[in-house]
Structure formats: C-alpha cells, structure tokens
Amino acid sequence: MLKSVQKVLNMSYGLLSPRIALGYQLGSGYDQSAWYITPDSVFVQYPSYTYRQPLNDYIQHRIYFRVSIPIFQKLSNHLQISKSKIQLLDANYALEEAQKAVYKDVQSSLSDAQLSRDNYLAYSEIVESYEELFDQTVNKFNLGMVNAIEVGIAQNNLVKAQADLLRAMYSYVLKHKILNLYRGVPITL
Prior knowledge:
It is built from 4 helices and 4 strands; from the N terminus they run H-E-E-E-H-E-H-H.
C-alpha cells in the first residue's frame, strides 16, 4: 500500500509539469444546402449532389500542437499534492502500527513458549516425584503397611501428573511451532 500511495504522490507532482499535445483531425463540412462556384463566379446549388462529392469538396485537415502550462488553476494541483502527502503519512503510520502489532505478537508468542517450556519442566519433576511416591507406596503395600486404596490414590495421582505432563509437552510444541512460523520456517509434523 505504501508504494501505491508513493506513486499517487508522484502523479500529483506530475500535475505541475506542462502538458504537450500533438494531434491530427480529419473532417468534412457537408451541408444539405451545398453550393459551388462556377468559373463565372456564380453560386449554384448542386441539384444532384451525391454523398461522396460534398465530403470531397469540403474535406478539412487539421494538425495541432498544444502546450498547457499549469500556473495557478485555483491552486488545485497544490491541494492535490498536499492531500497525497497526507495519504503518504497515513500509510507510513499504518505500516508502523502493523509492524508494532507483529512485534507484539512475536513477543507474546515468545513469552508463551517460555512459559510452556517452564510448565513442561515443572510437570516433569512432578511426574518423577509421583513415580517415586507410587513406587514407595507399592513397596509399603507389599510389606503390608498400607492398604489398596492408598495404592489406588497414588496411581491416580501419577496418571493425572503424566496427563498434565503430556498436555504441557504438546502446548510447548505448539508454541515452538508458532515461533518457527514467525521465523519463516514452514510448519511440519
């Protein structure tokens, strides 16, 4: 959009330059009441004037050359240039806003990816601790120190932690792929 607005501004500056025109016209002055002059200088109306004859008799050739130099023209050209400059400034501001929005999106995606990575690492530690707790609970159950309900609770806690770890891992992969997209790397599975 910025380039098109720049072209409009250049065209507006072109309004200040002179215009040169060169042309050629061909015409005929055919009239229904056509007259011709005899050698005795007598005007006589053509009694049987064919269509082609007056076209040949009254044919006109014009070659013209015109130079138009815009001097004032009620300052409309300068007004058009001013409007074009304002449009160019608006386009520059729109471009800056778009760049800021993209920068904000990239920064947000980066912080989301870092947060997802931290969550994944935290859930990894939680799964390790629940695995250790589950192993200890199974050993205590084998020794008869705890009942089967406590083993089931430990197993449920481990399964929930593993599900949270899996969710955090896929969230991290997604955020990482989004960052790669901003880098220009195509998304692959």
